[in-house]
Amino acid sequence: MFSYFEDDTDTLFRCLLVNRVWFEKAAAILWRSPFCQPRKPSRKLIETFISFLDGRSKTILADNGIFPIPSSSRKSPHTFVYSPFVRNLCYRRLYESACSFIFGDVENRKRKTWTEEKRCLLLVEELCKFLIRNCPCIDTLSYDTADVNFYGTDVYMKLPMMPTAKNLFARLRKLDCGGKYEKGELMHAISMHCKNLDTLELNFYEFDMFNSDSRLELKKMSGLICSQKSLHNLIIRGGKFKYLSDFMKPLETQKNSLSRVEFHRVYFRDSGPLEALASCLNLEILTFRDCENLKNETFLPLASVAFTKLRTFTLKNRHQQSFDSLAQMIKNTRGSLREIRFRRRNIKNMVISEVPDIPLNVIETISKACPNLHTFECHIEKQSMLYFQLILNSCALEKLYVSIESECKEFFRSRVPSLLPSSLHHLTISTMNRFTSDDLDRFLKLCSVPLTTFQLTTSPFVDDQCLKVIVKFARRRRTLKYVTLPRCSLVTGEAIRKAREVISFIEKVGEE
């Protein structure tokens, strides 16, 4: 039951007051990722953890001008210990909360001197020692400091050098690494004890530091991949990391276990990274989002192998008019794909030049080679409409997300609603085009599928009449339970109130 409230901290805090059993259940969720839960750096959270520190740590802090909570405001002895519930240690959020505790407002934090910075880092160090020593369930470490500037780069090595850190690294299942520092030494130190990672996330930034004259840094970094017994998930984000091809060469050591690989905002200098990936034939999820220089030639290594276990493929990215290598890769999956997602057009990306639509040879391949597809996301153009209709005919789709181009004004009056498969239960339509309630009425009259979710997003032309049409459909089909409308729509609160008499959930929240 409590898992339903994981993102509802207000409800979880109320659960703390019911009884001890509910307290323990709610606390296990609230304290699983204590420094990730608050939206802003939390001074109170630091106060709570300081109160758990031993006398030695408190003395060290006091000697350096970091005073624990005044005795007059100290709470009674703890009747409940939170530390066993902590599973996620986020270094950056811990650091930001420590800064908030010491310096107060944001402006004071920005003006801090090296001496003040050392006080903050000392507090972080003592809290890390406590967490590593007293939180035996930590299995996730986020060591991505992003754009945080430390006065000394040796800061990053303090955590791995702590006496009990090897116990932490030995049980880590997920590691997130990134920031303004050379990562070789850190990743090498972690790899000495960290052998059981399930997920590795690496975040490269434009400001990343690398020694271009030596490959030693690269060797130390890639050693973390080699040292894993069974890595399942690899996620690489951002930056123009010039050694990405070399860094990914050891990926072959994980070819039997690797099942999910994601690239976000990655610049591909060559096909090297995908050559390394081609050996991982047990891939189930492959994602490319907002990557650069991802050309037909870049994809060639993947066109010559068969990912027959690939279930989910996402490409939300720029690409060329023709993408033969991608089409061949999809064909080689031999019908294993269950979910394919391309970018839809919306307000944010409509104005960007060369925003990707699906090359015709790719959507044609999908219509012929993916009979087991149950989730499909795409942008529909006049040129691709025929193949899109073939997909509707040949696949038992369960979820469909589409955006409509400005020239495709006849979408609501096309054959599409009559072709929707009876298996479909989720339909999302994104459009900035003007359409009338009559257009929507005609579409839904021809739609005979048992939809449970209908999302009509981004259009500012949705009004009360459109909502009445949706309610009429809900009464006729008796399956529709969730409707979301764009925030910018013309639908009134009164119309929504009446619609809720028929539809369980209906909100103007955009897309859910």
What are the salient characteristics of this protein?
single chain; 512 residues; alpha/beta; 15-stranded parallel beta sheet; 21 helices; 15 strands; 36% helix; 14% strand; globular; 17196_t:CDS:1; LRR_dom_sf
Kindly describe this structure.
- The chain has a domain at 31-137.
- Mean pLDDT is 84; it is low at 71-76 and 350-356.
- The chain has 512 residues and is an alpha/beta fold.
- The protein is 36% helix and 14% strand.
- The chain has helices spanning 9-15, 20-30, 43-50, 55-63, 91-103, 106-110, 114-134, 158-161, 165-171, 183-191, 216-226, 244-247, 272-277, 300-303, 324-332, 360-369, 385-394, 416-419, 437-446, 464-477, 493-499; strands spanning 88-90, 140-144, 174-178, 199-203, 233-237, 260-264, 285-289, 312-316, 339-342, 375-380, 399-404, 426-430, 453-457, 482-485, 505-508.
- Strands 1-2-3-4-5-6-7-8-9-10-11-12-13-14-15 form a 15-stranded parallel β-sheet.
Describe the secondary structure blueprint for this structure:
Elements: H1 9-15, H2 20-30, H3 43-50, H4 55-63, E1 88-90, H5 91-103, H6 106-110, H7 114-134, E2 140-144, H8 158-161, H9 165-171, E3 174-178, H10 183-191, E4 199-203, H11 216-226, E5 233-237, H12 244-247, E6 260-264, H13 272-277, E7 285-289, H14 300-303, E8 312-316, H15 324-332, E9 339-342, H16 360-369, E10 375-380, H17 385-394, E11 399-404, H18 416-419, E12 426-430, H19 437-446, E13 453-457, H20 464-477, E14 482-485, H21 493-499, E15 505-508
Parallel strand pairs: 1-2, 2-3, 3-4, 4-5, 5-6, 6-7, 7-8, 8-9, 9-10, 10-11, 11-12, 12-13, 13-14, 14-15
Helix pairs in contact: 1-2, 3-5, 5-7, 10-11, 15-16, 16-17, 19-20
Protein name: 17196_t:CDS:1
InterPro entries: LRR_dom_sf (IPR032675)
Organism: Acaulospora morrowiae
